[in-house]
Amino acid sequence: MVGVDFGTLSGRAVVVRVADGAELGSAVHEYAHGVIERTLPDSDVRLGPDWALQSPQDWIDVLRVAVPQAVAAAGVSPEQVIGIGTDFTACTVLPATADGTPLCFETPSRPHAWPKLWKHHSAQPHADRINQVAARRGEAWLPRYGGKISSEWEFAKALQVLEEDPEVYARAERWIEAADWIVWQLCGVESRNICTAGYKGIFQDGSYPPRDYLAELNPAFVDFPGKLATGQVGGTFGGVRLAPLGGSAGTLSATAAAWTGLPEGITVAVGNVDAHVTAAAADAVRPGQMVAIMGTSTCHIMPSDQLAEVPGMCGVVRDGIVPGLWGYEAGQSAVGDIFAWFVDTFVPASYHERAGEMGMHAYLTSLAAEQAVGRHGLIALDWFGGNRSVLVDHNLSGVIVGQTLATKPEDVYRALVESTAYGARMIVETFEKSGVPVEEFVVAGGLLKNPFLMQVYADVLRRPLSVIGSEQGPALGSAIHAAVAAGAYADIEQAAAVMGRRTEAAYVPDPTRADAYDRLYAEYRALHDHFGDGRLLHRLRAIRNEA
Questions:
Q1: Does this model's pTM top 0.90?
Q2: Which of 69, 246, 500, 535 is 20 to 30 A removed from 163 (C-alpha atoms)?
Q3: Residues 76, 65 contacting (CB under 8 angstroms)
Q4: Which of 41, 151, 131, 146 is nearest to 91 (CA)?
């Protein structure tokens, strides 16, 4: 099997043996355009605050470059590959024509014609209105999303396009998650997966929000679900079915076979989200197993056999992670991005000289690890990319309290690491207070390579951390889903048990440090509640945007 993971800055492919999940070869392709945040490619068209776009050409290049390289690295013949699965960041969404052509290919000078990356947050005013109107009307679907729709999700971003560039909105015959668009390019058949439709597209209990609600947002928005080209589970809307996870979307087309070097006609799995497929890679597909995929941001996902309303969650969707179970999602909008921002922006040259080949992150980590808990005297709020859970407000911003003239870079670095752990504890506690127990906390993603950070999380959470047994969790998870789609396994649980892997209790909390962190976490909660109403932070952001 080949699994392909489309991330924020790059795409990676891995070749996996169906019999045991062994990873035989992999390759990474960096996106030429990266994250488009300031100006459109090859132009001087400037973007506003909190914009984040991507180029579909970068995604196609991953298929052209990374897939053949991974197969070559694995030392297998392309004819041995029986299926391909893909995953994507979400909600990364794009406007396209009815045949799947991205509008940015036709009108590259229009910002709203480009795909909006998951961390495009400038639709917050539109999300606010979506939430306000839904709350006033008592829309039944709103509690499934913790009481608020994020500015990252499909409806907020689409409403922004409608109201800021109605011509692009009118030309967009499809509003489609990149997770589904890339599958369309692979097999030539348009499909919509149940995961992104539920979590990002407000598809609940067989329908989208009602037309009269959409009309109240904007009369021209009433037919928006038609652009999503999907509908009832097991039925059709616009001729396109809502596809189950682990299902087959079709077979590899001749065009995609030429791109990838794989045989035409092999199975193409239904699209999925990077975080959600990682559960299978960690063999964490049973109720109560929370998987935290920690990278530039963190996504927390967990299957459950019960439905509950959990405040501030990204969503709860039937069959959204594993068919037959409810799937919960929460998240933190920035984690690794916070550490990178600090290193890139605030560390003095003298530290870089001392770090040398060790690298700045490793150097600061080594200095921070020498400190006793609380010695730096700082508390930070992990809102540098806004707050996804539990406040669901991307106009919030980061806060650091307690700095003095004696504060050093390693102090701030440690406080930032700790702040993300406090944010994770807030999420876990919110689940459990809502009657949804977290039985096991499993870590995946690039940040698990940092033992200091992992130990901080174990101490702050006061619980053991299990860790995934793969450095390419999403790609492995996509390959597992492809194995199910190709018929090698009966279902995702069976495939995950054979092909997935994790180490249980790889990190355990230290009681003394955990006690010290309890005191600091109480201060974090006090700051969280004080600044969480957004009044001060919103005013500061408004002043910045006006300037």
A1: yes
A2: 535
A3: no
A4: 151
CA angle 498–501–503, rounded 5-degree value: 145
- Judge contact between 269 and 248, C-beta under 8 A: yes
Task: Measure the CA–CA gap between 387 and 255, rounded to whole angstroms.
Answer: 41
Strand order in the sheet with 267-269: 23-30, 10-16, 2-6, 83-88, 267-269, 248-251
Angle subtended at Cα 141 by Cα 135 and Cα 146, rounded to the nearest 5 degrees: 70
Indicate if the pLDDT at residue 497 is higher than 60: yes
Distance (Å) of CA 36 to CA 43, 48, 439:
12, 11, 39
Residues sharing a CB contact under 8 Å with residue 455, sequence separation 6 or more, in sequence order: 507, 510
Segment 31-75, tens digit of pLDDT: 999 999 999 999 999 999 999 999 999 999 999 999 999 999 999
Domain boundaries 283-468+502-547, CATH class: alpha beta
Q: Where are the alpha helices (DSSP H) in 86-177?
A: 103-106, 124-137, 154-164, 166-171
Helical (H) or strand (E) element with 193 = strand 192-193
Give the residue range(s) of CATH 3.30.420.40 domains in the chain: 2-272, 283-468+502-547
Q: How far does CA 473 lie from the centroid of its chain?
A: 13
Distance CA 294, CA 465 (A): 13
Query: What Cα–Cα distance (Å) separates residue 235 from each residue in 6, 293, 387?
Result: 29, 33, 36
**Four-residue CA torsion sign, 386, 391, 395, 401:** negative
**Mean pLDDT over residues 533-546, rounded?**
95
Determine the topology of domain 2-272 in CATH. Nucleotidyltransferase; domain 5 (3.30.420)
User: How high is the pLDDT of residue 230?
Assistant: 53
Taking residue 170's Cβ as centre, other Cβ atoms within 10 Å add up to: 11
* pLDDT bucket at 229, cuts 50 / 70 / 90: confident
Amino acid at 150: S
Q: Write the CA distances from 103 to 9, 94, 175, integer angstroms.
A: 21, 8, 10
Residues in the chain: 547
Element of type H or E holding 494: helix 492-499
Asked if residues 477 and 277 have their Cβ atoms less than 8 Å apart, the reply is yes
Average pLDDT over residues 301-308: 96
Q: How many CB atoms lie within 10 A of CB 188?
A: 17
CA distance 341 to 330: 23
pLDDT tens for each residue of 406-430 = 999 999 999 999 999 999 999 999 9
Confidence band (pLDDT; 50, 70, 90) for 242?
A: confident
* HEC assignment per residue over 254-295: HHHHHHHCCCCCCEEECCCEHHHHHHHHCCCCCCCEEEEEEC
